[in-house]
Amino acid sequence: MTSVLDATPLTNSLTAGKLPRRSSLWILLASWAVSAAFFAMLFLSGNVDGFNIVGTVVFGTVLYCVAIYVLSRLVEGSRKAKDRLMTALVTAAFVIALLPLVSIVYTTVVNGLPAFLTPTFFTSSQRNVVGAGGGVLHAIIGTLMVTGMATLISVPIGLLASIYLVEYGRGRLARAITFFVDVMTGIPSIVAGLFAFALFALLFDDPGIRFGFGGSIALSVLMIPVVVRSSEEMLKLVPNELREAAFALGVPKWLTILKVVLPTSIAGIVTGVMLSIARVIGETAPLLIIAGFTSSMNYDLFGERMMTLPVFVYTQYANQGADSQAFIDRAWAGALTLIVIVMVLNGLARLIAHWFSPKLGR
User: Fold this and answer.
1) Rounded to whole angstroms, how far apart are CA atoms 67 and 242?
2) Burial class for 5, CB neighbours closer than 10 Å (0-12, 13-18, 19+)
3) What is the pLDDT of residues 104-163, one digit of tens each?
4) Total domain count for the chain?
């Protein structure tokens, strides 16, 4: 007599009706290949000037979304197909959002690297340079000094304001501070520059005043709300149990904040400060108004005009001389230098957050 096990073949229901492993990756690569072939045919036929890399990635990703949905619906059913489609759409949104960043970095590196690698680019200024040559040292020094002074102004004010809002602030004053911080967050950068210019023009009775410290004041107006918001959120993440434990031991509130709250949230606070610096270091309009521009070195924040990297890029592109290509190359190289500085600041923010974050050991 034949048993039931011999008559019925064994099947693995867990693997039946599924696309092969890594099928999504292969379908994505195939979609990009088809899209690349299409744009290559357009290029070879002479209908377009060059091969469109961005179009290849975008249309290839759209083709992938359609292909993965159709194949999954045929093999796995409608429910799994919808899941794969939503995953593909999220991935496509990530790729499309990443394309502008990749394009900007690629274009800046390609156009700015030749002048960036010039030996004199980081060791000289633009004094008495009317054509090719010269460097960006004066702009780097100006950027570091102006941004450093803005940080010295903004961090104490922003941190103390956030401590007040979290630990002490109640009633109308706290609500007013929160409202004005929100308003300052959305202030256009050129308004900050006009504010600093009007302030010092009235104080010194000089309608043509230009100096680096004024640029620091303008940048601090933009930095303070960012520092307040980031520090406030970090302070709110500190568990109330830590505060209550310190109060139960008889520790005063100010000492609890200094010894318990701030050390616990220091990683997030420092990260927010570094990101606020990276946010304002590329501002052009306020520095162009109040700090001005010059081709010479200036180590005095309180005297004469001071060049910064964003203004250097702007002036090199806007005020081209007889050898226009040299000015454009220096502008791209200055932009590349600024991108490198911002990337270093973001990297430092991540490292500091890792080093100072509380270690939860058993």
Assistant:
1) 54
2) exposed
3) 888 999 998 888 888 888 888 888 887 788 889 999 999 999 999 999 999 999 999 999
4) 2
